[in-house]
Amino acid sequence: MPRPRRAALAVVATFTLAACTGGGGKPATTANGRVSDTTTTSAPQIKGARTPAELSKALDITVPAGYTVQPDSVDDTGPSDLDKAVADDGEDDARDVFTRDRFVRGYQREWARSENDQIVSYVYQFADNAGAVDYTKRVTADAGAQTAGVSITTFTVPGIAGAIGVNGSDPSFATATVTFVKGPYSAQVVVNGTSAAGLQSLVTSLAEEQYSRL
Questions:
Q1: Which of 79, 184, 81, 174 is nearest to 131 (CA)?
Q2: In sequence order, what are the beta bridge partners of 185?
Q3: Residue 181 phi/psi, 5° resolution?
Q4: Cα 143 to Cα 145: distance, rounded to the nearest angstrom
Q5: Concatenated DSSP letters for 111-150?
Q6: Coil, strand or helix: which one is 151?
Q7: Beta-carbon neighbour count of residue 196 at 10 Å?
């Protein structure tokens, strides 16, 4: 099962995405680098959602035929308050980081067509762009880190400035993620499958739609 954003980024390297629940370890897969070229001065002026329900609507992206939206009870998806975000992050300093970055709310949505074929979108809302940028750096700090037995590559997303894309695969599982910032939002889209074929193009198109909806 997919994990939350930070685990997803870091865990691409250990491939526990398909075997773990949505909690503990911190939203979702995804270089020993940081989010680059993302600054508050060039950030678009985006009006943040006022309620969890309003944020939820922003995750109504269009997925391919065969994928079915999952209830919020599956993989601990749905709305995230501060306590849930801290638990999903899983690090000892998570509460301090979320408080410093002025976390407001989050939402996670999952679609699935089989146990290993899943799409997950994670959106965290902060009080301002600076908080979203800072938290996204935390999420992507290990994106692209290499692990024995796993193929990890990064890619760019032409339609989203500063986005970080990561592909990961081993003989039995594959995942592709795109993580980006838009205004007060830190967002990540994850696509899991048994084969890497087509995942990068799919996650790119889904991320671009998610970006446009925020």
A1: 184
A2: 125, 182
A3: -120, 140
A4: 6
A5: EESSSS-EEEEEEEEESSHHHHHHHHHHHHTTTT--BTTB
A6: strand
A7: 18
User: Tokens in use for 121?
Assistant: 């979108």
Distance CA 98, CA 77 (A): 19
The reported pLDDT for the residue numbered 2 is 44
Q: For residues 97 and 118, what is the distance between their CA atoms, to the nearest angstrom?
A: 29
- The domain spans of the chain are 7-213
Going by their DSSP bridges, the two strands 103-112 and 151-155 should be labelled as unpaired
How far apart CA 149 and CA 111 sit, in angstroms, is 28
> For residues 126 and 85, what is the distance between their CA atoms, to the nearest angstrom?
12
Which of 207, 148, 142, 132 lies closest to 176 in space, CA to CA? Answer: 207
Alpha carbons 115 and 118: distance in angstroms, whole number: 7
| Averages of pLDDT over each 10 residues, the chain, 214 residues | 40 35 40 41 69 95 97 93 95 96 97 94 97 96 79 93 94 94 97 94 98 96
Q: How far is CA 14 from CA 19, 69, 142, 183, in A?
A: 11, 26, 12, 31
Q: Are 128 and 184 in contact (CB under 8 A)?
A: yes
| Whether domain 7-213 has CATH 3.40.50 | no
| DSSP conformation class of 51 | S
| Residue tagged 């989010």 (tokens) | 35
